[in-house]
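Quick one:
INPUT:
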């Protein structure tokens, strides 16, 4: 009985500390996102690395909700896994079509998942935006987007692949969408672009 007041006070103090921490985190999030989307100013320029580290890739902001920019290509994103055997050789899995899985989850859905629609697609476009035409990460953001894309693919493949996954590789096939109204017989052959990414090491901590 004598310990109850002390225990109650400790619980109350812990609750207050948790509430204060949540409020501080929320306020910091609002300020950092505001600085990210606001016009460039002295504060946003000075703290640009810290702002980018917080915003990307999970809290990225853009205005496409109000001015949609539909895809002009059909993109097939495939992944395969590999692990090293005891004798040093590599066992490589078949290709998994990650984009087809997302399309299957969206098709015929009245309220399709935002994750199924955009997670993989936005991860790929962010990767290409930060890497350009090659696969060399020259900035911190490029390294971060590479890890982000790798982790998404590794999680998807691990859920389907029996056995250990030590490495992951992506292959992206891009086919332009024909202009509306053009007759099928009059369309020039579609220029198919295939991009094979290097093997990436998969780590248990995602880094």
């Amino acid at each position: 009985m004598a310990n109850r007041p002390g225990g109650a006070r400790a619980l109350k103090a812990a609750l207050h500390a948790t509430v204060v921490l949540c409020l501080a985190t929320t306020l910091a999030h609002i300020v950092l996102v505001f600085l990210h989307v606001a016009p460039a100013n002295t504060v946003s320029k000075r703290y640009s690395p810290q702002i980018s580290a917080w915003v990307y890739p999970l809290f990225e902001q853009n205005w496409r909700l109000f001015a949609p920019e539909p895809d002009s290509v059909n993109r097939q994103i495939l992944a395969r896994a590999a692990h090293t055997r005891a004798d040093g050789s590599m066992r490589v899995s078949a290709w998994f079509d990650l984009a087809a899985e997302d399309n299957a989850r969206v098709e015929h859905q009245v309220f399709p998942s935002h994750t199924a629609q955009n997670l993989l697609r936005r991860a790929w476009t962010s990767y290409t935006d930060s890497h350009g035409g090659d696969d060399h990460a020259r900035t911190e953001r490029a390294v971060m987007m590479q890890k982000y894309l790798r982790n998404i693919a590794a999680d998807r493949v691990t859920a389907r692949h029996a056995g250990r996954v030590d490495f992951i590789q992506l292959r992206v096939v891009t086919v332009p969408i024909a202009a509306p109204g053009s007759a099928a017989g009059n369309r020039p052959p579609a220029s198919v672009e295939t991009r094979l990414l290097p093997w990436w090491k998969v780590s248990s901590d995602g880094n």
